[in-house]
Amino acid sequence: xxxxxxxxxxxxxxxxxxxxxxxxxxxxxxxxxxxxxxxxxxxxxxxxxxxxxxxxxxxxxxxxxxxxxxxxxxxxxxxxxxxxxxxxxxxxxxxxxxxxxxxxxxxxxxxxxxxxxxxxxxxxxxxxxxxxxxxxxxxxxxxxxxxxxxxxxxxxxxxxxxxxxxxxxxxxxxxxxxxxxxxxxxxxxxxxxxxxxxxxxxxxxxxxxxxxxxxxxxxxxxxxxxxxxxxxxxxxxxxxxxxxxxxxxxxxxxxxxxxxxxxxxxxxxxxxxxxxxxxxxxxxxxxxxxxxxxxxxxxxxxxxxxxxxxxxxxxxxxxxxxxxxxxxxxxxxxxxxxxxxxxxxxxxxxxxxxxxxxxxxxxxxxxxxxxxxxxxxxxxxxxxxxxxxxxxxxxxxxxxxxxxxxxxxxxxxxxxxxxxxxxxxxxxxxxxxxxxxxxxxxxxxxxxxxxxxxxxxxxxxxxxxxxxxxxxx
Length: 473
Fold this sequence. Notes:
Layout: H1 5-10, E1 17-19, E2 25-27, E3 32-36, H2 57-64, E4 67-72, H3 79-88, H4 92-95, H5 119-125, E5 129-135, E6 168-172, E7 184-185, H6 200-215, E8 222-227, H7 240-244, H8 251-254, H9 265-294, E9 301-306, H10 326-329, E10 333-336, E11 344-350, H11 352-363, H12 379-382, E12 393-397, E13 406-411, E14 415-421, E15 427-433, H13 449-465
């Protein structure tokens, strides 16, 4: 979409400047943004929470300096839907990404639309130098964007016209060989991908550090998004040094959640490596935090650590994602801005479409935001100024060929409620009392008809408000 030169000029950096610790000039009221989001990392897998026995010393220290949003949700806990919600500020049925972007799903139009005005488009118009590193997964692997050496899983080249304001590019669409990743750089052509021969989070952190050193404090603020694929499966693709940190711990030592099925082969074989991957991500997150400090940019940079969705890892007898259970639905969300965002915990229900307007609110960007976004700016709450707190976060799951079917639900302070609709019109309600049953082991819908009725009404109102084709009328 065309953006006027007048808007770009009007939003450029402001007249005043402040000095960083190293004497670099930074525009006033225009902090940098570093947004780090590994794939498939559940909220419970952070050491400071004392839930999973995972080693995360850097996240533990970072949490002590940050605002931790306890109820940060992955509303549709799948890779592509999360990423589309993050960038567009819209729910899946509104932005069209109702499932993972694949060559097969493209026939249903499941791909980030080129004419969407996305978060980095707005930031670019506001004078930000925007960069993206790592996994994209918002395009479909199809001609003409498949290189001569052929498709590799769901991977493909992303042309510049589909990068939505990201001027710096070191990314791929979707490729799960973590120990032998490849990337297309900013000016690379279709057949110009590189193979760094490093574990992907380590290489991506190298690139992020180089970006920060070369752009931080040089007249324009930056917004850098770092999307690590690990701890996404396959779980064995992790450097041995991180696995060794868990010593001789076995599945019985690591699958400690009361709802974990310790007989599930995939969980028994995967959990040690899954936690090792998270430790590796933590190690590299510590490296990039150190770079910000060394460059004198720590106080001028908003840092967010989150994830696109969680991982069941045997809980309730399940693996992976796409579930309304806490292990799939809740994600880490830690945000640090020294002197501006008070460290501590917050029980805010933070949904993925809220992230676009919230980040823009924190950065002081108020113009150029599309009028059709569905998320809400929660930055006043994070900044301690108060504001309306939502009663719930919505849950989504829908077939690629039938967005009016599938599942919709709500997660409130107490309950997780999900309504399923099948092709024959039948409905099934699921209700978990997360206070009495925090591991969601008993469906109590039949025993609580009044609660089901109340939450059905709230869900129906939400669906109507957001123009969801699911409906409950």
